Amino acid sequence: MTSDAKAVARWAGPALVAAALIALIGEAIVAAAWDQRPYSYVEDYVNFLGSRFTGEFRGIVISSPLWWLMSIAWIAAGILVGVASVALGRRLTGWRRRTVPALGAAQAVALILFAVFPLGPDRLTDGTLPLYLIGAFLSIIAGNALAIVTGLAGRPLGFPRWLAVTSVVAGVVGLLNIPLTYGWVPTGLAERISLYSFLAWALITGLSLLTSRHHN
Q1: Of 43, 84, 145, 175, which one is least surrounded by beta carbons within 10 A?
Q2: Cα separation of 34 and 45, whole Å?
Q3: Residue 142 and residue 106 in contact, taking contact as beta carbons nearer than 8 Å
């Protein structure tokens, strides 16, 4: 392996796997801790998991005692994706070398905003609703765009063909899902299709990089 390839395998693989697992495991733990009613993966906003607010908001009861754990998980996942993107960009040239780290940085910023400004009454009274919305939509756009760009750059990144194709498909599904399903598919389900498409890409790509590292 070249020095750049080793850097990608050393940093990007573990970082992407950790980002996906932290987000998914954190989500499961926090959702299970809801104490006034069961959290619904299908109906409830993803961001309700990280909400500090307890009570009724727009007719929906929110009570997430471990909101802080979800916030930490989102922030950690964002930072790890940013680190992985810098490592991936080192193997690229031209616009892809700039775009991959930029998308990773955008995803990190988006997830930090998503964690720091959770949906609830405060967003409507203190004028920070736009920050929540930026975090929510930017995380979907940047994360899935990152999957597409890395898939298109699969050859210089050393991705096997199946991973390059999977990356592009996952990213396209994640980007198209919200405009195609939002409003007629339950909110939690619509959001999770776009969230899990990115997390699936991160996990599969990270595992593939780790495997290639051990085989070289």
Answers
A1: 43
A2: 14
A3: yes
